[in-house]
Specification:
It contains no helices and 11 strands. The protein is mainly beta. Strands 2, 4, 5, 6, 9, 10 and 11 form a 7-stranded mixed beta sheet that branches. Strands 1-3-8-7 form a 4-stranded antiparallel beta sheet, with no helix packed on it.
């Protein structure tokens, strides 16, 4: 059974940092692209970032480029999203995604 479990969300002040983690199980982790997708209150889904199975190819939405970094540890079956210089508009539920599978999401709130 494929499982994706996010952690690391919380409340942070503007300009602060958070690191999200997504622990994966039930599949050959290193064989899959992994994605982070977010949904702000009252808005639709927004793709944030992607990383290939080997971890050497990454992509970012323009809205987070230069502030967020996606990475993965295939030995730990975990993908990360390091978020720096956070803005109020980054407030959202962040989901870890593999093709056809979504985690339960973790809330990130950026507010003073």
């Amino acid at each position: 059974e494929v499982q994706l479990v996010e952690s690391g969300g919380g409340l942070v002040q503007p300009g602060g940092s958070l690191r999200l983690s997504c622990a994966a199980s039930g599949f050959t982790f290193s064989s899959y692209w992994m994605y982070w997708v977010r949904q702000a209150p009252g808005k639709g889904l927004e793709w944030v970032s992607a990383i290939n199975g080997g971890g050497d190819t990454t992509y970012y939405a323009d809205s987070v480029k230069g502030r967020f970094t996606i990475s993965r540890d295939n030995a730990k079956n975990t993908v990360y999203l390091q978020m720096n210089s956070l803005k109020p508009e980054d407030t959202a539920v962040y989901y870890c995604v593999r093709v056809n599978y979504w985690g339960q999401g973790t809330q990130v709130t950026v507010s003073s």
